[in-house]
Design brief:
The structure is a homodimer of 346-residue chains. Chain A has 346 residues and is α+β, with helices and mostly antiparallel strands. Chain A is built from ten helices and 16 strands. Chain A folds into three domains: 116 residues, Rossmann fold, CATH 3.40.50.20; 132 residues, D-amino Acid Aminotransferase, Chain A, domain 1, CATH 3.30.470.20; 57 residues, Dna Ligase, domain 1 (2-Layer Sandwich), CATH 3.30.1490.20. An eight-stranded mixed β-sheet of chain A has the order 6-5-4-3-2-1-7-8, with helices on both faces. Chains A and B meet through helix 1, helix 2, strand 4, helix 3 and helix 4 of A and helix 1, helix 2, strand 4, helix 3 and helix 4 of B.
Chain lengths: 346, 346
């Protein structure tokens, strides 16, 4: 199978997307890989697989690669003798953060009829926004941590016990996130978060909370990863998460009871189906007492959370054969014809 | 000003988008108009303004027009001597239903850095879906009509008094909507709705409810239309709505008290700001007792609800100067550089 890996993008996580994309070389060994880079200026380039290393991008050398145009049916190179389609069976959207996770890439792929692995438009728009994720979870009967939503212009009148955690609603990878131990630190933390977003959510910071990650997808069957208990310090900072995105070695299953595992998996399925069809996502859960709370949805997890699955590549191939199809809409101009008949000409 | 009107699309409302686009010729008299058609197959064509009539599309003649490619910075014609950008100052997204209202066109415009008038991605994804519209309204303190959400696979166990109204969550223009007078009719109405969508909402049908429409936008000031009391029968069927999309004559203000008008306008502003910045939307409200309930958001109303404004064209020009700007993200490869230093080469 020929898998086109779409990476880069105009995103704070542009660089970790490059790391994720390079990691795929080690993970997808049986497939042919076609690398398509989205530059920070959002131009498309076809990158030769043997040239895929981080320096190609940091040096700006990538600009010598073939530019691509996105047109109906796929990506094309343009040459003297017309345009030529770049061959691939499916696009794997590996753009973290803006463009990739907010629904723009999903929109582009759907509009231009390119088969792709990624959350679709609606799933992206909801999961990219931590506030909308709360609405979604609530509507599906999945509990989340309490929160307060604050917009930039709102009064900073927060009634919640400390310590708190302040998060911009729309960014991933801990960017702009602060833990606030006491009231005197709150203003600064909010200023930082509002640098990145016009909306923040504030949640109680639960020290030592048990955290578990569950990744998976639905192909012709449910394909759920092992449940991982991520190592953590207070929380992962950007550089640590960055290194985390190059993981390719399998990890151990968390040591939890069958009933807790079952609860986590049920919550995952509720979130995933049917909104996230066509994607591999990772949900991060907190366990407080015997309650499983959704912390966040990673619609495009670092290196696709490949290290949580026993045969990631085969799963990806099965998924690429089970992508959701857009409803076909036939336009036959019935109404225009009938109006033309009724009144001559519009 | 040169306004590019983007219309058509792969949508059940493709034809009414053509009617809306033709209507703009009568409404935008001072501006230069550039018509860009999105065919049912989602290919772009540049349509000469003098050729803009419904027959061009119903006959398929439009296929002889110049094809366009969407690239970074705008729409381009491709010729012997390279590609040439189609001149325009702003794109007015006039695609009703799928593509235009669901966030795909917004994504395309934002990704390719084209200034455009339309709800942005998030606003589109939320308002295109009647269930998510409920979440949004709730979070903003705007009341809506009670509802039950039902998915295709759910048991049809509806506890609500008749008559009901059944609506697919994702379509506009009354497509797939039924009023259900008694239990024996419910199954058929659900079957019809599920033909169009995997999710429906069911609401009490409030016979004779007072309905008021408020359109508007935020430029350098609030620009609110008159409040209209739409004429209605049980509800407008597709053909009547269709004719409605070609309206260009101003209508009369509804005869309501100042305090009701104030309530409607406050609700409109809560919905609009800041999510819908950059767009002209119409909100349809029900008034029950002294409560104002949001019925639906029309993110791209028929003929842009021009007939509700005293000088639509001047407002459009002011709006085009107040479009929300995407946050600029600088990618400087700091992390890749630091990793390269730390470990040689990734």
């Amino acid at each position: 199978m020929n898998i086109a890996i779409l990476f880069g993008g105009s995103s704070f996580e542009h660089e970790i997307s490059i790391v994720s994309a390079i990691t795929m070389k080690k993970v997808l060994k049986k497939s042919t890989l076609t690398y398509i880079f989205v530059s920070p200026q959002r131009e498309f380039y076809l990158i030769e697989t043997e040239k895929m290393n981080s320096k190609l991008f940091s040096s700006g050398e990538y600009k010598k690669s073939k530019p691509l145009t996105l047109k109906q049916g796929g990506f094309f190179t343009e040459g003297m003798f017309g345009s030529k389609k770049v061959a691939n069976d499916v696009v794997l959207n590996l753009i973290h953060g803006r463009d990739g996770e907010d629904g723009k890439i999903a929109s582009l792929m759907e509009f231009f009829s390119v088969p792709f692995i990624s959350p679709r438009l609606e799933a992206s728009a909801l999961s990219y926004n931590k506030l909308y994720t709360k609405f979604l979870a609530e509507s599906l009967g999945v509990k989340t941590v309490d929160y307060i939503h604050l917009s930039k212009e709102d009064e900073r009148n927060i009634e919640m016990a400390y310590p708190l955690i302040v998060k911009p609603v729309r960014l991933g990878s801990s960017i702009g996130v602060s833990i606030v131990k006491e009231a005197s630190e709150l203003d600064y933390a909010l200023d930082v978060a509002f640098e990145f977003d016009n909306d923040v959510i504030i949640e109680p910071f639960i020290a030592g909370v048990k955290e578990y990650n569950q990744a998976g997808c639905l192909t012709d069957r449910w394909e759920l990863s092992i449940v991982e208990e991520p190592q953590k310090e207070a929380f992962l900072d950007f550089e640590k998460k960055y290194m985390d995105f190059s993981r390719d070695a399998q990890v151990l299953s968390a040591d939890i009871s069958d009933s807790l595992k079952e609860k986590i998996q049920q919550s995952f399925k509720k979130i995933y189906h049917p909104l996230f069809q066509g994607s591999i996502i990772r949900c991060d859960f907190f366990v407080v007492g015997d309650e499983v709370l959704l912390n966040e949805i990673n619609p495009i997890p670092g290196s696709m959370a490949n290290y949580l699955f026993s045969d990631f590549e085969e799963m990806l191939i099965r998924l690429s054969k089970q992508l959701p199809k857009e409803k076909n809409i036939t336009v036959d101009y019935t109404y225009i014809h009938s109006i033309q008949q009724a009144k001559g000409k519009v």
